[in-house]
Amino acid sequence: MKKVGGRFALLAFVVVLSVAFIIPSVPFFYQSVPDWMKTVLPTKGIALGLDLQGGIHLVLEVEEERAVEIAVDRAVSAVQDSLVDKKIPVESVKRMPPSKITLNFQNAEVKVQIQKAMEEFPIFYEVAAEATSNQVVFDLREGEAKRIKDSAINQALETIRNRIDQFGVAEPLIQRQGLKQIVVQLPGVQDPKRAKGLIKETALLEFKLLDESSKVTFELPQRVPKEKKDELLGQFKDKLPEGDEILFEKVAEKDTGREFLIPYLVKSRRMLAGDVLSDARVSIGQFNDAYVSVAFDSNGDKQFVRITAENVMKRMAIILDNHVYSAPVIQERISGGRAQITGTFSMQEANDLAIVLRAGALPAPLKIIQDLTVGPSLGRDSIDKGIQSTLFAGV
Q1: For the segment 73-99, what is each residue's pLDDT rounded down to a tens digit?
Q2: Which residues contact 26 (CB under 8 A, 6 or more apart)?
């Protein structure tokens, strides 16, 4: 009979190794293991999927047309800045649905200067048939519109992945489905509502100046109940100056918790956008209140210094997804590349806001096409049977 000592030794080694690798997957046992042993054992156990531990299953659709509109809106801001730098006088630069830019002017001699300046934006072409003596019209090239739509899907996919990674979900499934849909599976999520909000939030950060010279500013009420928002917008719809809009800041009474809205008359032109952010972190103020501190990259820092230097003693609104978070007065030229987003945040809300700002804004809003919350009951039964079969086989 052949010696079997070597075989038993090899078998024992494999068994010990198998037990070592399975320990991190048994939480109650892993917690009782000495710290020195944890440094040797694997730190990650078996990741259970959606079918075993439950979670949420989402099918999202990117609003492609809105992605094109947002891209053209950004181009409008860039065109405005370019014309200001070149000192070309225009009355207005506006986006016309779905993807056109109209430029109005008084002096016909300016037309040639505008056409030359627009050569810096080759993604647009002039629509000669719609031009007048005081207006030129440019439209987005068809190939560029298609590229923006396709890019929006890929960018949304990457942005969602970055947000979920920072949210801390183990083994998520995030993949493209069809032409404009994204499938997201998050196993073991304990707060589905928070996770969905984190995924869906567009997180378009903008800095805009308030229009404090218009009489509409003085006619706006100091605050209105939430349910009166649409009524107020309808009341002032025909009174708004050209290039202005009404946006709201949400506030809550400390005693009752009842929420109100503070209306602001804001200039539609964006002074600065969130694409120049390099970081966003939660900080605690002197009254133990949470706020989000943001840092600009070198390009954003230069723009912020210029904007604040040119608008001392004016109010600038900090806006996220068309909601005003604060509207401080610019006391002096601000350098250092940092700003603060304050509001009535809980610590969790501030953390979520910092996550979406760090991960970047979505290129367009998302619609939830399918929303399933999967319970772990069937998975629990499968896990128990799996453990039993493993024990029997091991014995």
Answers
A1: 888 888 988 888 888 888 888 888 889
A2: 45
Using alpha carbons only, give the angle 313, 315, 319 rounded to the nearest 5 degrees: 155
Report the C-alpha gap between 181 and 158 in whole angstroms: 13
CB atoms within 10 A of CB 144: 18
By C-alpha distance, which of 46, 353, 50, 60 is closest to 172?
Answer: 50
Tell me the three state secondary structure of residue 72.
helix
Nearby residues of 181 by Cβ (< 8 Å), 6 or more positions away: 59, 60, 61, 62, 369
Q: Is residue 276 within 8 Å of 321, Cβ to Cβ? A: no
Q: 6: which 2 tokens? A: 């070597």
| Distance separating alpha carbons of residues 148 and 179, to the nearest angstrom | 13
Extract the residue ranges of the chain whose pLDDT is less than 70: 1-3, 25-33, 36-54, 170, 375-383, 394
Rounded Cα distance, 68 and 38, in Å: 52
**In sequence order, what E strands does 297-360 have?**
316-320, 323-326, 338-345
Q: In the numeric block, which tokens belong to residue 288? A: 């133990």
- Cα–Cα distance for residue pair 123/139, rounded to 1 Å: 8
CA distances, 261 to each of 104, 229, 275, 318, 323 (Å): 35, 8, 27, 15, 10
Six-digit token pair at 282? Answer: 């939660």
Q: Report the alpha-carbon distance of residue 136 to residue 102 in Å, rounded.
A: 6
For the chain, state the CA radius of gyration: 28
